[in-house]
């Protein structure tokens, strides 16, 4: 998995995982993969009800 390439592809776009708790697990896994493989510092997560937002800098 190339996290840097993934970040380049989704730059300026929104990525959404819609569904149940299994999709939430996939969302968290994607965040962990991006943070680890792209060498990013832990990014703040913003929770608003059932919506979770992360902004990588």
UniProtKB/TrEMBL annotation:
InterPro entries: TBL, TBL_C
Pfam families for this protein: PC-Esterase
Domain Trichome birefringence-like C-terminal: 1-39
GO MF annotations in UniProt: O-acetyltransferase activity
Gene Ontology CC terms: Golgi apparatus
Family: Belongs to the PC-esterase family. TBL subfamily.
Protein name per the record: Trichome birefringence-like C-terminal domain-containing protein
């Amino acid at each position: 998995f190339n996290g840097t390439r993934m970040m380049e592809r989704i730059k300026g776009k929104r990525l959404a995982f819609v569904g149940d708790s299994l999709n939430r697990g996939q969302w968290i896994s994607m965040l962990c993969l991006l943070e680890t493989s792209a060498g990013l510092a832990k990014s703040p997560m913003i929770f608003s009800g059932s919506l979770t937002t992360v902004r990588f800098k």
